[in-house]
DNA sequence: CCCCCCAGATACAACGTTGTCTGAAAATTA
DNA sequence: TAATTTTCAGACAACGTTGTATCTGGGGGG
């Protein structure tokens, strides 16, 4: 599977000393002082056009590009024109939509985004975040993973601008952009109750994550509103692997048998639908998920969801961050982005107790 | 939607001069020279343990963290322990799987990944890539967007290590990790031909992208093998927006009517299935897509695909890059990652000319 | 007792760049 | 024409750090 390319010069093995030209080389070639070359590179007007032309030609010949590391070290304003983005998981659709939105806003301002994906590991979150800070980013956008962001307190008091997205930071106060998690969850469950469901299960991620707490609260309040006693056996948390979710769904139908499910996160929704397919229950058990995903409308049956707007969240977070970088002072703010119930079918299946019971008996026999 | 947090100190508005402590502050507090403090920070053994302890305590008190920008500037080896990753679109599942794999490998080596998403814009690709190079990254992993990467020639000859993923670079020779695009496409189309299809359409992305060229070649060769004359009207390229794809699919069935489709990219597959649903053709027209996507197995009908292995591609790319950074010299290599036909249903629909014709007539009337 | 050596600390230069200050020549004014 | 201002190039320091050279003092050997 490895083939070497036909005869060409070797690549790799950088001789790190002989590398890139510096402004000194440019000045030398142009026959001016180093500072004059610097002036030309930075478009300062106080240079004789003749000389400027010579410098520019030299820079072009050498393919000179300023070393931004050196520049950032020296520049008075101390802006590196770089922001850091910490994601809980780059391959989650929610994350990558946020990333894309942030990059688009940053791009308009010629700001580079340094992103780190921490795979839901709080230690990695901390390491990555501090590594970004040590690189002197102008600000941080974080989708928190762990339940303690206090390691940022010093950075913040040193003036680092921080915006959290999706999940509020814990033990730290920062600008935050979040969805209406409570309201959305409540709406989802109300919707299921309106369809006639009474045995509704909650499938959620790690219990300490702020969004999960809110979504579960919404779930419980919707039940209470309808005077439905919550059944603890129908509340499953700590789901974050495909296997775990599959197992949990099967377990649910082995013993208790909900007639509807509320899945509190996009990956959980996806895996739950997959499990329902395997159990041939997808047409018999209703489901509403929190957070939309790419193919939700062409799944069988199409999945009803509480849709978040990750692009808007990323956009707002980036804008809040840039305002702070531009000098806005004031107390930390929280922006809540509304969510929307999208009805597609999975949450509005006709209820037929008979068929469901039949299928479940069949399953339990097997 | 904006609420201010209850009484706390303000955030933002960094006083950029009074910011973070430097090693000078640490040395001062510890009562030693700057260089001694530096030695302690860098775990050099030639320091009296007494003093070392004092320095460490001072560093802790001040919450000192080295300024990596300054360090990188000075350090002899010139490694910044940072690599750049340029993606064609962060929100594409393929891209984000690559990103995740690269970050995982990099993380093991304590390397930070700076990534840029360029939204399939060649100019942005160039800008972003050079911006990363100017930040002195130790290497670059690029999923090329444009049809000319020669702007990197100087960087490369200055010793920058570059690995391309998915799409080969054009007008430049670098290490490359790619799928077996030709073989995969051929296999997909052979599979459709084996099911009895003769009128097979090709739906592809921008024509200049290396992968598209290969996949189209595979498509055409499979037809030729079976002595099927390709019909130019069934070859649609330059698809890259949801609307465009929807429109193209509708157009296909207005005039010519393929009985099967080969969609050459994941986004195209998704939108094509969506369009088929709208036209109520999803059970009548067969489809095989190139590149898998998250919900492909629970879509109605489940989508048969040629699955790539983006995680493996990212992993291999990162490993090749690190080998180069570690000093491996030699000609540029190309690694081909095998692909796999996954049969799920959409490519194996029973052919019923009658029903299809009926539905099409109905459609054209409307 | 002197010299040397070594451990271990400090002083100074350097990385590539930009901020500040100085100086020289040109341009303007009196 | 002399005095003064303006223009603009260059010298030098500095950013925060590490590499190298130098210094200091204490211990051991002659």
Describe it for me?
The structure is a homodimer of 366-residue chains. With 366 residues, the first copy, chain A, is of the alpha/beta class. The first copy, chain A, folds into 3 domains: 23-66, lambda repressor-like DNA-binding domains (434 Repressor (Amino-terminal Domain), Orthogonal Bundle); 82-178 and 311-337, Rossmann fold (3-Layer(aba) Sandwich); 181-308 and 342-365, 3-Layer(aba) Sandwich (Rossmann fold). Chain A has 13 helices and 13 strands. Chain A has helices spanning 23-30, 34-41, 49-62, 68-74, 93-108, 122-134, 153-157, 181-194, 210-225, 242-254, 266-278, 310-325, 353-365; strands at residues 2-4, 82-87, 112-117, 139-142, 161-165, 175-179, 200-203, 235-236, 260-263, 286-290, 304-307, 333-337, 340-342. In chain A, the strands form 2 sheets. Chain A has a 6-stranded parallel β-sheet, with helices on both faces. Chain A has a 6-stranded mixed β-sheet with strand order 8-7-9-10-11-13, sandwiched between helices. In chain A, α1 packs across α2 (34-41). The longest helix of chain A is centred in the first third of the chain and has 16 residues, at 93-108. Chain A is elongated and about 90 Å long. The two termini of chain A are 45 Å apart. In chain A, 49% of the residues are buried. Chains A and B meet through β1, α4, α5, β3 and α6 of A and β1, α4, α5, β3 and α6 of B. Chain A binds a DNA duplex (30 and 30 nucleotides) through residues 22-24, 32-36, 38-39, 41-42, 46-48, 51, 66-76, 78.
């Amino acid at each position: 599977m490895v083939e070497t390319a036909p005869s060409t010069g070797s690549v790799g093995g950088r001789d790190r000393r002989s590398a890139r030209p510096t402004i000194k080389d440019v000045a030398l070639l142009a026959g001016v002082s180093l500072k004059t070359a610097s002036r030309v590179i930075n478009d300062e007007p106080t240079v004789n056009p003749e000389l400027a032309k010579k410098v520019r030609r030299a820079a072009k010949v050498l393919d000179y590009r300023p070393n931004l590391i050196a520049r950032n070290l020296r520049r008075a304003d101390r802006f590196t024109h770089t922001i850091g983005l910490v994601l809980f998981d780059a391959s989650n659709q929610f994350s990558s939509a946020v990333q894309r939105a942030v990059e688009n806003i940053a791009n308009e301002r010629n700001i580079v985004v340094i992103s780190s994906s921490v795979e839901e590991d709080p230690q990695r979150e901390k390491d990555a975040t501090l590594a970004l800070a040590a690189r002197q980013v102008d600000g941080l956008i974080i989708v928190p993973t762990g339940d303690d962001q206090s390691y940022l307190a010093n950075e913040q008091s040193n003036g680092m601008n921080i915006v959290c997205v999706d999940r509020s930071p814990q033990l730290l106060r920062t600008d935050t952009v979040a969805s209406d998690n409570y309201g959305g969850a409540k709406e989802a469950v109300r919707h299921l109750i309106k369809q006639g469901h009474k045995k509704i299960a909650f499938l959620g991620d790690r219990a300490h994550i702020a969004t999960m707490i809110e979504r579960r609260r919404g779930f419980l309040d919707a039940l209470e509103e309808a005077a439905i006693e919550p059944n603890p056996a129908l509340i499953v948390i700590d789901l974050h692997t495909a296997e775990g979710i599959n197992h949990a769904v099967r377990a649910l139908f082995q013993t208790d048998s909900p007639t509807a499910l509320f899945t509190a996160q996009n990956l959980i929704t996806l895996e739950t639908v997959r499990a329902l397919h395997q159990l041939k229950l997808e047409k018999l058990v209703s489901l509403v998920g929190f957070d939309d995903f790419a193919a939700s409308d062409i799944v069988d049956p199409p999945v009803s969801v509480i849709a978040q707007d990750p692009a808007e969240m990323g956009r707002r977070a980036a804008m809040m961050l840039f305002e702070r970088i531009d000098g806005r002072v004031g107390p930390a703010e929280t922006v809540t982005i509304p969510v929307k119930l999208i009805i597609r079918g999975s949450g509005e299946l006709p209820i037929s107790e008979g068929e469901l019971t039949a299928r479940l008996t069949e399953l339990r026999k097997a």
